[in-house]
Amino acid sequence: MQGKFITLEGGEGCGKSTNIKFIEQLLLTEGFSVVLTREPGGTILAENIRQLLLDKEQEKISEQTELLMMFAARAQHIKHVIQPALDQGSWVLCDRFTDSSYAYQGYGRNMDRSAIQWLESFSQNKLRPDLTLLLDAPVDLGMARVQKRGQLDRFECEKMEFFNKVRTGFLEIAKQQPERVKVVDAAQELPAVQESITQLIQNFIHG
């Protein structure tokens, strides 16, 4: 039986790292084989691309280069990790996927979304997430959490206006695809966030 593909999305400081481990445990408790992965990344080559994308000391990366690097990493990730795991019946749980490209490059950088759509079809074929949980929190709250972590990466150094556009993008995607994308209020205390997540995962598994 084909596995299910679940993605976790959201802006900076929304709690993805904490909650993806929580979701993994929920799925393992249900008896599923789970592959936990992330984007950009997931393979040796894709992780190298991630380092280049996040390094703020690199030469200035153009918007087009950034988008193409994201999809180069994604194509590698799908071929060598995601699709094989799904074909073997495992459930794949991924920290970010193509919704992030639409939100960050499409909305945040004002890039042509039809170009992203073409790259999506070209690199993913028919692969799309079965369920996406969008952790949503006000930008100032998310960035305050990020600042506490210390060293900022290249994306985290962007202006607040950029992150507001990214958040708008994510919420627009959720509005357009409500069957797939479920919004979780990540401004709540962690127990309340995880209660919401548990309910959504249970509904997805058991209907």
Can you walk through the features of this model?
By secondary structure, the chain is an alpha/beta fold. 57% of the residues lie in helices and 13% in strands. The chain has eight helices and five strands, in the order βαβααβααβααβα. It has helices spanning 16-29, 44-54, 63-87, 98-108, 113-124, 139-149, 160-176, 190-206, and strands at 5-10, 34-38, 91-95, 131-136, 181-185. It has a five-stranded parallel beta sheet, with helices on both faces. The radius of gyration is 16 Å and the shape is globular. The protein starts with a strand and ends with a helix. The model has no long low-confidence stretch (mean pLDDT 93).
Question: What distinguishing features does this structure have?
Answer:
single chain, 207 residues, alpha/beta
In short:
With 207 residues, the protein is α/β, with parallel strands linked by helices.
Q: Any low-confidence stretches, pLDDT <50, length ≥5?
A: none
Q: How many strands in all?
A: 5
SS content category: alpha/beta
Shape: globular
How far is the first residue's CA from the last residue's CA?
A: 18 Å
Radius of gyration: 16 Å
Percent of residues in helices: 55-70%
* Count of helical stretches: 8
Strand proportion: 5-15%
Please summarize the sheet with the most strands. 5 strands, parallel
**Strand order across the biggest sheet?**
2-3-1-4-5
Mean pLDDT: 93
What letter string, H or E per element, gives the SSE order? EHEHHEHHEHHEH
